[in-house]
Every structure is written in C-alpha cells, then in structure tokens.
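FIELD: query
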Amino acid sequence: MEVDVRDDLLYTKEHEWVSIADDGIATAGITDYAQTSLGDITYVELPMLEGEVEQFEQLASIESVKAASDVYAPLSGKIVEVNADLETDPDLLNKSCYELGWLAKIEISSDEEISKLMSADEYRSYLDNIE
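FIELD: result
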C-alpha cells in the first residue's frame, strides 16, 4: 500500500500527524495510512473547544463503514479550534486528511513532548514494519 507521508509533519504510532506553527499552535489530524485503513468515514466526534488534552490520550472519535476508532492527541494542551466542517462533511478526512481534514488545533503546553513524536522518515520505517 502506497501511503502519503509528508516530510514537514511529525507522527505518532497511532497514526496521527501534527504540524507545529511558530506561535506554539499545533494542528492535528489522522494520517493517510489511518484514513485508508478506516475506509469511508461517516462520522467524526470532535474534541470540546477550550478543553484540555493530554499527549496520547483521546482527542476525538471517528466512525467509518468498517470500524469506530479513537484518535489520540499528539501533544498536550488546550483545544483552541476544531474543524467544524467535519461535522457535516466527515469524508473530508478521506479526501484530504492533511489539508482540509485536520481535526483540532492545540495550544501546546509542553515543548518537551515533541521529542516523543516521530519524524517522517521514522514514521515511514514504522509503517514498513507493520505492513
């Protein structure tokens, strides 16, 4: 399976991606591998705005024709924005998981947690070992 892994993102072992802006706001979503594995996504339960999340704890839930799956926060912090478009158009995750299908923006509470994430090359190696 050919999977789109973006070099400018960081990744988790649970197949979430994160992009960290200079202002300390992290945008999080699920990877191409995750959306492909789930199949057609039919529902997304987004996190609560202003809610606090902990790294690797539940951030959101996704339902597809195949399964229901939890999505985990790549970093700890406060939810400052959610992608409300997913409530009416959940298949944006299938169409554009890196651009239009992002889940939430998190105001990062600890820079030290970034070291627990994988680079694109590390994530590619990880995928090679699970397929």
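FIELD: remark
The chain has one domain: 10-130.
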